[in-house]
């Protein structure tokens, strides 16, 4: 559906995107993550034909965005971080203007407008001035213009920024609805949002792709040393003796909890595919010492994000003022 090959964008001496390559298939919701200045907005602006590249290639449905921009852009609906709204028009007027700009015929335009307003639930404010609408409704109108003409690909740059929790949930539900009939690319700083709605996550850092996989696979891949917490009906010496005999446990810290109980936090690496929790459970079971608590801390998407992007800061501004393959490897709104 989308192929990005060796894409590079420079602003003078600053490289915002560096030899970036990835592929996006049809019919999924993709999360596009990266710290501020990582190159996300630059990449999306190039993919949508809003910005030229220094070098590289982007094809949309087989069309080169630089050589066949008119054909490629027909396949894309785009919502920038700042929705391109005309505040002194009503949503219906604005959508009529956008539909004409997209080349929708006058006969089909009213039906298209009614369709996108129904999908985005903006019909009840269709004839109110956009400047009188809340941030949530403005975002909905912005999404409505992106899906006019029923594009195969919908690209949303920070669609929930500045919204309250209720509005975020509403927009998240809308994105999931769009994902049933479109390929959706979602850029967001809200990692829980990406984890909730995206089937595949791409993480970019300093203009390079550092990961591309499902959230679950990324969690497994970057789990690293497992951290396990236990509470047992046992003395300190007993717990210490049992843990020292488990090959997969490398270090531990024991705290006496009183009433003949001890708690411990331990770390280690699985040996020969053996699950650490299973090894600990069997060791205490064989010793007939009850385990009252046994749980493993999983690596969250936030942990993975921080590990892959270093300190979480980009190289510099993404533009002047403005997850698993490594570095460049190719991969397949409420009224006020």
Write the layout of secondary structure elements.
Layout: E1 2-11, E2 14-24, E3 29-33, H1 40-47, E4 55-60, E5 63-64, H2 69-73, E6 76-79, H3 91-101, H4 109-120, H5 135-147, E7 153-157, H6 165-178, E8 183-187, H7 191-197, E9 200-205, E10 208-213, H8 215-221, E11 226-232, H9 236-244, E12 249-258, E13 261-268, H10 276-286, E14 291-297, H11 301-308
Parallel strand pairs: 3-8, 3-9, 6-7, 7-8
Antiparallel strand pairs: 1-2, 1-4, 4-5, 9-10, 11-13, 11-14, 12-13
Helix pairs in contact: 3-4, 4-5
User: Termini, distance in Å?
Assistant: 39 Å
Q: Class of the largest domain in CATH? A: Alpha Beta
Gyration radius, rounded: 25 Å
Total E-strand runs: 14
Main sheet overview: 6 strands, mixed
CATH H-level homologous superfamily name of the largest domain:
P-loop containing nucleotide triphosphate hydrolases
The strand line-up of the biggest sheet is 6-7-8-3-9-10
Coarse shape:
elongated
Range of strand content: 25-35%
The helicity comes to 25-40%
**Oligomer category:** single chain
- What is the CATH third-level topology name of the largest domain? Rossmann fold
Instruction: Give the domain tally.
Output: 2
Describe the structure.
Helix 4 (109-120) packs across helix 5 (135-147). It is built from 11 helices and 14 strands. The protein is an alpha/beta fold and 336 residues long. It has helices spanning 40-47, 69-73, 91-101, 109-120, 135-147, 165-178, 191-197, 215-221, 236-244, 276-286, 301-308, and strands spanning 2-11, 14-24, 29-33, 55-60, 63-64, 76-79, 153-157, 183-187, 200-205, 208-213, 226-232, 249-258, 261-268, 291-297. 31% of the residues lie in helices and 27% in strands. Strands 6-7-8-3-9-10 form a 6-stranded mixed sheet, with helices on both faces.
């Amino acid at each position: 559906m989308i192929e990005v090959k060796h894409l590079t964008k420079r602003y003078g001496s600053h490289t915002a995107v560096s030899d970036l390559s990835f592929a996006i298939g049809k019919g999924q919701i993709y999360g596009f993550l990266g710290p501020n200045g990582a190159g996300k907005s630059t990449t999306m602006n190039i993919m949508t034909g809003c910005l030229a590249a220094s070098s590289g290639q982007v094809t949309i449905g087989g069309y080169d965005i630089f050589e066949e921009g008119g054909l490629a852009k027909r396949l894309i609906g785009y919502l920038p971080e700042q929705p391109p709204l005309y505040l002194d028009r009503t949503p219906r007027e604005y959508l009529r203007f956008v539909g004409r700009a997209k080349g929708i015929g006058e006969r089909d335009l009213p039906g298209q407008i009614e369709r996108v307003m129904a999908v985005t639930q903006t019909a009840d404010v269709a004839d109110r001035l956009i400047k009188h609408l809340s941030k949530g409704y403005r975002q909905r109108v912005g999404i409505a213009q992106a899906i006019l003409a029923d594009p195969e690909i919908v690209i949303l740059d920070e669609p929930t920024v500045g919204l309250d929790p209720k509005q975020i949930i509403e927009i998240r539900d809308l994105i999931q609805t769009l994902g049933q009939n479109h390929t959706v690319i979602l850029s967001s700083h809200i990692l829980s949002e990406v984890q909730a709605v995206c089937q595949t996550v791409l993480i970019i850092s300093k203009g390079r792709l550092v990961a591309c996989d499902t959230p679950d696979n990324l969690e497994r891949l970057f789990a690293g040393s497992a951290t396990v917490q236990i509470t047992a009906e046992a003395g300190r010496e007993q717990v210490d003796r049992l843990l020292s005999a488990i090959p997969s446990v490398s270090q531990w810290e024991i705290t006496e909890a009183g009433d003949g109980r001890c708690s411990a936090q331990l770390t280690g690496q699985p040996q020969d595919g053996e699950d650490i929790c299973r090894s600990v459970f069997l060791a205490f079971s064989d010793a007939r010492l009850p385990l009252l608590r046994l749980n493993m801390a999983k690596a969250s998407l936030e942990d993975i994000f921080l590990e892959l992007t270093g300190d979480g800061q980009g190289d510099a501004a993404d533009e002047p003022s403005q997850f698993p393959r490594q570095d460049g490897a190719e991969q397949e709104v409420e009224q006020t």
